[in-house]
Amino acid sequence: MVRAAATKIDSPKKSKDTISSKKDVPTPSCSSTTSSISNEDDSEESKYFKVGDYVDVKDYTYGSWFISKLIKIKKDSCVVNKPNDPKSPVENDGLIYVAEILGCPEEPPIEVQLQEIRPHAFDILPFENLKVNDRVLMNYNVDYPQERGYWYDVLVKEKKTNRRGRNVIGDVSVGIDNVVLKNCQLMFLDDIYRIKPYQSLSERTPEDDKIMQTEPVVMRAAALYCIKCKDNSDKSCKECGCRICGGKEDEDKQLMCDECNHPYHMECLTPPLKEMPRDDWYCPSCKNDENEIVKAGEKLKASKKKTPESMSTSKRDWGKGMACVGRTKKCNIVPSNHFGPIPGVEVGTTWLFRVQVSEAGIHRPPVGGIHGRDNQGAFSIVLSGGYEDDVDNGDEFLYTGSGGRDLSGNKRTALQSCDQELTRYNRALALNCNAKIDSEKGATAVDWKKGKPVRVVRNYKLCKHSKYAPELGNRYDGIYKVIKYYPETGISGFTVWRFVLKRDDPTPAPWTTQGKKRIAKLGLKIIYPENYIPTVANQDIKSKLPGSKKKRTLQDADIEDNEQCLEEEVTDCSKKKSKILYKLEKEAEKLITADIANQKYWKDCKEFLEKGKKAFLDRVEEVFSCICCQEIVFEPITTECSHNICKGCLRRSFNANVFQCPSCRAELGKSYSMNVNMKLAKTLLFLFPGYNLDR
Q1: Cα(171)–Cα(431) distance, rounded to whole angstroms?
Q2: DSSP secondary-structure letter at 129?
Q3: How high is the mean pLDDT of the chain?
Q4: What is the CA 508 to chain-centroid distance, rounded?
Q5: 3-state class (DSSP) for residue 379
Q6: Which helix (H) or strand (E) holds 444?
Q7: Neighbouring-strand partners of residue 646
Q8: Which fold, 231-285?
Q9: Rounded distance, CA 646 to CA 637, Å?
Q10: 142, exposed or middle or buried, with CB in 10 Å at 0-12, 13-18, 19+?
Q11: What's the CA gap between 570 and 157, in Å, rounded?
């Protein structure tokens, strides 16, 4: 979450744009609504608003509401209207509302449609008058729930008052698509605003008109720029001030490190600097020590910066390096807190190593069994037979929570040594159950299919206990839902939390006959890491190695079984097979045909259809990646030179006075109209549903 200071319009405090000069802090950007710039000064007539009204506008970058001033209403026949939100009290009227966000004078006006603008909420609702199922405007921080954030619509689900204080739990609507974050705990209960309903101009009284046309004196509190010092300008802080003395004075004498971007006073350095350096400058922590440079003929010098961990001489077997290897790529198609399937990843897809599962976005942690957040829910789990209490029946299984083990001494696993608690990842998995959270007795879902989805991966280690596990690697088995959860005494004698999960995926399971036919039809084979050679060493050479005549252990048997599976896999891959042709859905074909401006790119992508759906989607992701942010283009601008760039990336380029195509440097001009290619945007959203949620 970007942090910015709360401002008062008529006070001498620092405004958002003043803070931005100190550190690059994004400010609310324009919307994705496209329109050509009109030269006419006359505004169109609207049913609900007129020029000069002070309104609340939902910003497309943050997905939250900001106080703004309406400066123009225009109509553009080129606009492709955003689909109407059925929950909104009004429908888009074909007009574009241009507004300036208060407190950001240097920010260009924002353009929105009717459903993203409403009367300014100024009436504070007392906590005593707040009721369950009320929809109000409240402050919430998505990344740091305990801190100040931005203003979102909240549907109150629970209200409590006890000796510990007041408590409100509600569903927060975030983003333009109104993604709901369920069961969020709201912290700031003195700032609850009534959402003012839409009122037509004909129904306005002179008093209403005066309120709408009067500039608010006090702005609503916004997110903090610095959490540590709470934006106190009189308090020394090494996070937002000088890293040595913590002072915030003499900003003109502060140096910004070109590596870590932290400020330093010139007089605080050792030795002090008398004048501003002309070249790049690096702070003492980032600067390379010249004494550590190895000259010709010298031995390697031990660096003082190296940590004891990096100089460790441990001989522990970490799975031949693949158990703790770093990721070479990251899944950017959907955000890390995405619930449900990952676009392009089919049920039955198998990867050799866990790190590949992390790279694909199916299960992000390379080691942990549960991926989730204790205030949102669990996104995915891995079944690997690590707990003796687990029971796997395929479409339904009994899963044991995490914790209760002493993993000190760099251990990966250990015996149960204490009771488990419904906290952290266990609580995250419990939130997926469609029932009120109960940390003592557990709960059973009222309607289990309405619970949050969990992606399930089965590991080959589970095959010792379950016939549904793969013989090799890690297999994605689809979506499951939590039916119930409860505590009980496990085999070890300690309390463990048990979770019952049931499959709720339209795709047939990989172990069924239909699932096996589907896997064969799609040509899904085990996926190896890049440049990985799945071969087995010569048995004659192995027999000559030291220790080859020792008694065979269970670990050796597992290794031999895996090697045998690898040999069979290599044999299968070497066989001649027919091409697996993936056929596009009719709707996808229709959307691609409509995108005339990018036909040559789509023609190139269609050549990968014969290699399967994954190869096709990988090619689409590669071809339609923004040259600036290296992710799939969001709100794509198709230039005259046939390049696709994110609207936000192109706007940042224009703000830096670079009016050229970021890809080929073709001149675009200062007055270039940034019209979003809605046909391409719809096509990408169809192929990669949800990729725009965290953008």
Answers
A1: 13
A2: G
A3: 81
A4: 28
A5: strand
A6: strand 443-444
A7: 636
A8: Herpes Virus-1 (3.30.40)
A9: 6
A10: buried
A11: 55
For the chain, state the CA radius of gyration: 29
Contact (CB, 8 A) for 84 and 113: no
Question: H or E segment at 560?
Answer: helix 554-574
Q: Please tell me the class of the 350-404+418-522 domain.
A: mainly beta
Q: Long-range contact list for 445-449, CB < 8 A, 24+ apart?
A: 445/481, 445/482, 445/483, 445/484, 448/481, 448/482, 448/483, 448/502, 448/504, 449/481, 449/504
Beta strands at 110-112 and 95-101: parallel, antiparallel or unpaired: antiparallel
**Interatomic CA distance for residues 221 and 16, integer angstroms:** 12
Using alpha carbons only, what angle is made at residue 353 by residues 348 and 358, rounded to the nearest 5 degrees?
80
Tokens (6 digits) for 187: 């912290």
Between 14 and 207, where is the model more confident? 207
Rounded distance, CA 212 to CA 55, Å? 8
The CATH architecture of the domain made up of 133-194 is Roll (2.30)
Per the rule left: phi > 0, alpha: psi between -120 and 50, beta: everything else, 237 is: beta
Name the nearest CA neighbour of 379 among 690, 32, 96.
690
Q: Does domain 586-687 have CATH number 3.30.40.10?
A: yes
pLDDT in tens, 25-82: 344 444 444 443 444 457 788 889 999 999 999 988 788 999 999 999 988 665 455 6
pLDDT in tens, 563-598: 555 455 444 544 444 455 678 889 999 999 999 999
Q: Which of 236, 231, 277 is nearest to 254 (CA)?
A: 277
* Of 129-138, 275-284, 663-672, the least confident: 275-284
Burial of 242: CB neighbours in 10 Å, binned 0-12, 13-18, 19+: buried
Stated pTM of the model? 0.49
Question: pLDDT tens digits for 439-464?
Answer: 999 999 999 999 999 999 999 998 88
Place of tokens 């923004």: 626
How large is the average pLDDT for residues 261-278? Answer: 88
Asked if residues 619 and 608 have their Cβ atoms less than 8 Å apart, the reply is yes
- Domain residues of the chain, as ranges? 1-122+196-225, 133-194, 231-285, 350-404+418-522, 539-574, 586-687
Distance CA 634, CA 626 (A): 8
Cβ(243)–Cβ(283) below 8 Å = yes
The CATH number of 1-122+196-225 is 2.30.30.140
pLDDT tens digits for range 215-238: 888 788 877 778 788 778 888 888
Helix (H) / strand (E) element for 65: namely strand 65-75
Question: What's the pLDDT tens digit per position in 489-518?
Answer: 888 888 999 999 999 999 999 999 999 999
Strand 636-638 to strand 644-646: parallel, antiparallel, or no bridges (unpaired)? antiparallel
Six-digit token pair at 521? Answer: 């039809």
The answer to whether 586 and 563 are in contact (CB under 8 A) is: no
Residue given tokens 């689900």 in the structure block: 157
Alpha helix stretches (DSSP H) within 338-456 = 354-360, 424-431
User: Per-residue pLDDT for 610 more than 80?
Assistant: yes
CA atoms within 13 A on the CB side of 668: 27
Domain pair 231-285 / 586-687, same fold: yes
- How big, in percent rounded to 5, are the helix, strand and coil portions of the chain? 20, 20, 60
Q: Which residue has the tokens 């309903």?
A: 197
Residues 352 and 563 sit within 8 Å (Cβ to Cβ): no
With beta carbons less than 8 A apart as the criterion, state whether 598 and 644 touch.
yes
- Picking from 8, 18, 2, the residue whose alpha carbon sits closest to that of residue 248 is 18
Confidence at 533, pLDDT banded by 50, 70, 90:
confident
Phi/psi of residue 493, each to 5°?
95, -5
